Amino acid sequence: MLKTAQTRGKVVLFYPPYDGPPLGAPLSLLALAGTLREACFEVVLIDAAIEPHYLDRIAEECVSALCIGISVLTGPMIRGAIVVAQQVKKHTPDVAVVFGGWHPTLCPESTLREPYVDIVVRGQGEVTIVELASALSAKQPLDLIAGISWKRDGRIIQNFDRRVQPIDTFAPPAFDLTDFDAYERETGKRELAYATSVGCPYACNYCTDMVVYKRRFNAYDAEHVVAELTGLVKSYRITHVALLDSNFPVDLRRAMAIAQGIVNSGVKFSWTFQASTDFICRMTQDEVQLLADSGVNYMGFGTESTSKPVLKMMNKRHQRVDEMYETARKTSLSGIRVNFNLILGYPGETEADRLETFRTMSDIRRQFSNVRFSPNIFTPYPGIPIWPQLRELGVIEPKTLEEWETMPLGANLLPWLRGRELTRLNRMLEYFLVLNQPLRPSSGSSRAKRLISSLISNPIRWRLKASLFFFPWELWLSHLSERIVKRRSLVTGAELPAESANAC
After folding, report:
1. Strand positions, DSSP E, 330-445
2. Which of 194, 206, 362, 471 has its CA 20 to 30 A from that of 31?
């Protein structure tokens, strides 16, 4: 927190509660805090993950605040944002309530229709929040601030978009505002969420990243990443870093330079990232080994399907099945765990497509034990390119914040996936997960688990090949010894709650 004679006013930043364990302080708010402090604003950051009485704290801080900025993702996270916004407008109505993040960026109008939201920051917020706080402090009009939507006399006004700026032109995120001890008490881990880049060059039809960043890869150079990251690890005794990059190895030379720089620094920590299998396949085995030597112990991949027609409908022409095998092979040789994300129920997908994916992925898992899976029902998030097609197929688009709140990752709003079709999909999915889930070691039971696994593996493979799923005795037997993990974080590979809205 900055408290000097030069303080231009206080800005409260709030991260609402969400499902799943926190990876550390929310990087999105730390980035805003960095530019605000550079502009001489006092910043108070409140994260519901470690602040049990966050409503009381917010009420206290907002008494003297210019505004409160709330970061929001689509799904249950909206619930906490609404509660806080309503409280602020009730008790401190002169404090501007500002919503930012992915959901308000993609749905500014429906967000602003709510009486408790005054302003929406769209897209990159580092500069926008400073200009907004400056205008509020000086009681100046908001008309010329690019990248915001706001209300005047009940009418919604959409200011011009703000052009995406290179991330290395901003002040560094305010990592010193993080109470690492509090997060460690919450999770038992000394973790850091960090980003070396934003944006991805691909244009997958189900992805919101391309809508915001327009397929532009926007990154720090390798020297900056190595210096800042190793410095943070040493200063705050970090043991694990989760990269939030959409597709870390887009620039292979840069990715290798970061890995080599970490090795050369002698600073030891584990780190994880998301990627596309095609980028890993372009690496030599020595380069993949360099990643492992630098501390990479996990990678997440949006493989989604092994059906060529489905991949084409997803606009994932860069995704090839042979590269999935090769990625699994290379990472296995280097001792790196991987998670293959799957999307089921995509518009146009048939049962034959699903079975092909289950069979191929099962074969990959049979050959490479480092592979795990995280299957999800296709979720029609706001702003994705195929919404016109979805509307024609009968998908009803939520119109209010409250309606979007009910859409966590994997929520089923698909008219074509109901009744017997959904029941059958869930049955074959459970077979797939039982077949491919690693046994959990525990004293006294590992022998029994191995026995049960050996008894049911071949029958399940037969079922997936023959597409016959009646009388599921294998599932009944497996439930006696093992709990099925249905969803994992693409960022860390950790287990997630069944209805988690946290896509990472």
Report:
1. 337-344, 371-377
2. 206
**Structure confidence at residue 44 (pLDDT):** 98
pLDDT, one tens digit per residue, over 13-58 is 999 998 778 888 999 999 999 999 999 999 999 999 999 999 999 9
Residue 225 shares a structural domain with residue 148: no
Q: Select from 107, 132, 153 the last residue of a domain.
A: 153
Across 21-35, 397-411, 412-426, least confident range: 397-411
Does 222 lie in the same domain as 112?
no
For Cα atoms 438, 439, 444, give the angle at the middle one, nearest 5 degrees.
Answer: 170
CA–CA separation, 416 and 502 (whole Å): 25
Residue 121, both tokens: 């920051």
- Cα distances (Å, whole numbers) of residue 385 to 43, 195, 394: 36, 25, 16
Exposed, middle or buried, 468 (CB in 10 Å: 0-12/13-18/19+)? exposed
Q: What is the pLDDT of residues 307-317, one digit of tens each?
A: 999 999 999 98
Q: Is 254 part of any domain?
A: yes
pLDDT digits (tens, 9 = 90+) for 194-213: 999 999 999 999 998 878 88
Percent of the chain with pLDDT over 90: 77
pLDDT at 486 over 70: no
Q: Are 168 and 220 in contact (CB under 8 A)?
A: yes
Whether 447 maps to a domain, the answer reads no
Q: Please tell me the distance from the alpha carbon of residue 144 to that of residue 94, in angstroms, as a whole number.
A: 21
CATH of the domain at 317: 3.80.30.20
Whole-Å CA distances, 178 to 30, 132, 354, 383: 8, 24, 43, 32
Helix (H) or strand (E) holding 152: strand 148-152
Residues 288 and 350 in one domain: yes
Domain count along the chain: 2
Q: Is residue 385 part of a domain?
A: no
Spatial contact of 38 and 171, defined as CB atoms under 8 Å apart: yes
CA distance 451 to 445: 10
Both 362 and 226 in one domain: the answer is yes
Q: Where are the alpha helices (DSSP H) in 386-445?
A: 387-392, 401-405, 419-436
Residues 371, 365 contacting (CB under 8 angstroms)? yes
Mean pLDDT of the chain: 91
Together in a domain, 230 and 359: yes
Per-residue confidence at 2, pLDDT binned at 50, 70, 90? very low
Which pair of structure tokens corresponds to residue 253?
A: 């030379």
Dihedral over Cα of 109, 111, 114, 118: its sign: negative
The answer on 194 and 130 residing in a single domain is no
57 and 117 co-located in one domain? yes
> What is the rounded CA–CA span in Å between residue 109 and residue 118?
11
Q: CATH number of the domain that 110 lies in?
A: 3.40.50.280
Q: Is residue 415 part of a domain?
A: no
Domain extent at residue 37:
10-153
Q: Among 131, 153, 175, give the residue marking a domain's end.
A: 153
376 alpha carbon, distance to own chain's centre: 14
Residue 337 sits in the same domain as residue 276: yes
